[in-house]
């Protein structure tokens, strides 16, 4: 499946092998698709995902500081904005309907799977360079883009219509295309026109695949809330 998320992303996705499918076709995702995911699993996941997005936005803010060009800074800053001002609105609205305030969400205790993922991404940025960080960030952005595109469009009475529409929607798909263009430009700038085969490329593949595995663990965590 291709959604015009640039050239770098599909190469890293292919290098990740079956782990990518484990993530994008996980039982949790299939439960969202057919509507049979238990509500407790969804809400437990959503609370954790709110906290995830807070730390994920911190990681994109770190990417602003690791940028080498104004164009890179602007693209990373726009992603911080999309996370804390758009995507998170889904979580706030859905959880409010279930009786949870944003204060409750912000102060929720982090599940170890959540902690492992977000701190891995932040560490990729602290211990590595801009590309290390982008490679760790990419599975999150583009994976949900692929999932949303596959699960949408959806009927109004689907139990997970809001979630699916958020990721299938034009705004989120644009975030994915912008991130893909950012990634392509950053790779060309730092690794040249033929990045595959460079030592830097091998590291990117490792970062991307590890972050994808952490996405699988995140869905596993979500299912564990289902009782
Ligand atoms: C764990 C996770 N991964 C990705 C996304 C999509 N931004 C998300 N909300 N949560």
Write down the Rg.
17 Å
* Distance N to C terminus: 33 Å
What are the secondary-structure elements, in order, as H or E? HHHHHHHHHHH
Output the number of helix runs. 11
Would you write up a description of this structure?
This protein is mainly alpha-helical. The protein has one domain: Heme Oxygenase, Chain A (Up-down Bundle), CATH 1.20.910. It is 79% helix and 0% strand. It is globular. The structure holds 5-(aminomethyl)-2-methylpyrimidin-4-amine. 5-(aminomethyl)-2-methylpyrimidin-4-amine (NSP) binds next to helix 4, helix 8 and helix 11. One of its GO terms (molecular function) is thiaminase activity. InterPro entries: Haem_Oase-like_multi-hlx, Thiaminase-2/PQQC, Thiaminase_II, Thiamine_Salvage_TenA. Catalyzes an amino-pyrimidine hydrolysis reaction at the C5' of the pyrimidine moiety of thiamine compounds, a reaction that is part of a thiamine salvage pathway. It is an enzyme of class 3 (hydrolase). This is Aminopyrimidine aminohydrolase.
